[in-house]
């Protein structure tokens, strides 16, 4: 695994420029009747999990499997978001309880399990790999956000050096973690493995944020340009590529599977947020 990570780092160092644009076929992914949509992740089989709302301030999780949507709500929760799914269909995410406290959850075999980082005031799970390793974020009693890795029943904090907050969004089956460390001046996308960080920046971007990483080293995320606009991006063996839903005013790429299929959100000209699936051609 160490060799695999070092190879990934060497590859990233050699592709810090954009290349010929990859062509994607885009499809809008909206829960029927909803007013807001955010697909968070997609597994190797094409199952998608995410967040939607029928009304402002009330969120529900969902699973999209073989074209069929299923609403997901943690029992008794006032808000639920499904954020990660592995090849076995195990789902992780976050929910808000009746006391307005955020917790992480795992959904397996139709059973919900709540879990929290010890001593945290808020915990949210963002991804799970096929070995059951979970990554996410928690907030401490001082109000600072940290990343975490939950592996073999043990939590570990993950903090980007000198960051005011750390966001951990994805983990692949090699245990390589994708996240973003926010400093006082910018967002720094990073890969992490066994205590080692590698910063990755979209060429020419003011700030770069990671969404996910797959087993082939394919990446997705979003970046802010010099005009302050947010664009999605992907990275594959040919380099970095901008990824914008046609006609959108904002695009965020949040999840990528082993086939390079990407999910995320976009805003249309009227300001409505939709989900999307982008399939490389």
Helix-strand blueprint:
Layout: H1 2-13, E1 24-29, E2 36-42, E3 48-55, E4 58-65, E5 68-72, E6 79-85, E7 91-96, E8 102-108, E9 111-115, E10 122-128, E11 134-139, E12 145-151, E13 154-158, E14 165-171, E15 177-182, E16 187-193, E17 196-200, E18 207-213, E19 219-224, E20 230-236, E21 239-243, E22 250-256, E23 262-267, E24 273-280
Antiparallel strand pairs: 1-24, 2-3, 3-4, 4-5, 6-7, 7-8, 8-9, 10-11, 11-12, 12-13, 14-15, 15-16, 16-17, 18-19, 19-20, 20-21, 22-23, 23-24
Bulk shape: globular
CATH architecture: 6 Propeller
Q: How many structural domains does the protein architecture include?
A: 1
The largest β sheet comes out as: 4 strands, antiparallel
Arithmetic mean pLDDT: 93
β-strand percent reads over 45%
Q: Please count the beta strands (DSSP E, at least 2 residues each).
A: 24
CATH topology annotation: Neuraminidase
Description of the molecule:
- The chain has 281 residues and is mainly beta.
- The chain has one domain (2-16, 27-271): 6 Propeller (Neuraminidase), CATH 2.120.10.
- Helix content is 4%, strand content 55%.
- It contains one helix and 24 strands.
- The strands form six sheets. The protein has a four-stranded antiparallel sheet with strand order 1-24-23-22, with no helix packed on it. A four-stranded antiparallel sheet has the order 2-3-4-5, with no helix packed on it.
- It is globular, with a radius of gyration of 17 Å.
- The mean pLDDT is 93.
